[in-house]
Amino acid sequence: MLVSVRPRPPLERPSPLSRRQIVLRREALIEPVSGGPALAEAEALLTEFHRRLADLFQDVPALAQTFPAQPGWSLEPGLLAPEYQPPAGSLLLARVDARPVGLVAVRPLPEASGCAELRRLYVRDGHRGRGIARELLERAIGEARRLGYRELRLETSPRMPDAEHLYRQAGFQPIPAYRARAAELDRHYRSLSLPLP
């Protein structure tokens, strides 16, 4: 019995674009800070962050003046505060072309067992809008998990809508206030559950 077989159409050659390897490019190198020159760079970034907060709250002068006086990352020059050191916490510095451009920290919340707090997520002007804050946030969440925390909390302000948007996208949910703050601060509190893997 003869069977008619249709010739198969020639396979289309793949486009040169389809042969290119897709690589998700990270904008920044993120490294943990333990002391030394990197800690000094993190302190400089924190000073910038405090100035930015003071500018955001310039309509409340008594409050704006308190930001530059807030404590830094170290207890004494070159020595990172224990709450930001493993196994309790972590301080992360983002670099682009070897220059420091952003930071974030994770520290324990002693009043809530198994809970850490995200602190001072900041990216310098000129480097925003490139995904660096998202990279820092993802790394900080990973650090909190690695350190054994089951919940990560944060406080933010409606005066920082980009940060609010980023936290919502990452899955942080609104929660009641977990510390007393001046009413003028108009804080929003959020939490992210970190289930066991």
> Looking at CATH, which topology of the domain at 27-152 would you report?
Aminopeptidase
Share of helical residues: 25-40%
Q: Approximately how much beta-strand content do the residues carry?
A: 15-25%
Computed CA radius of gyration, to the nearest angstrom: 23 Å
- Which structural class matches the secondary elements? alpha+beta
Strand order within the widest sheet?
A: 1-4-5-6-7-9-8
Could you characterize what this model shows?
The protein contains 5 helices and 9 strands. By secondary structure, it is an alpha+beta fold. It is globular and about 40 Å long. The termini are far apart. This is GNAT family N-acetyltransferase. Residues 51-197 form the N-acetyltransferase domain. InterPro entries: Acetyltransferase_Enz, Acyl_CoA_acyltransferase, GNAT_dom.
Short description:
With 197 residues, the protein is an alpha+beta fold. It has helices at residues 16-19, 36-56, 61-64, 132-146, 161-169; strands at residues 29-32, 74-76, 79-80, 90-96, 99-108, 115-123, 151-156, 173-174, 188-193.
How would you describe this structure in keywords?
globular; 5 helices; transferase; 7-stranded mixed β-sheet; Aminopeptidase; two-stranded antiparallel ribbon; GNAT family N-acetyltransferase; alpha+beta; 197 residues; GNAT_dom; Acyl_CoA_acyltransferase
Q: What's the SSE blueprint?
A:
Elements: H1 16-19, E1 29-32, H2 36-56, H3 61-64, E2 74-76, E3 79-80, E4 90-96, E5 99-108, E6 115-123, H4 132-146, E7 151-156, H5 161-169, E8 173-174, E9 188-193
Parallel strand pairs: 6-7
Antiparallel strand pairs: 1-4, 2-3, 4-5, 5-6, 7-9, 8-9
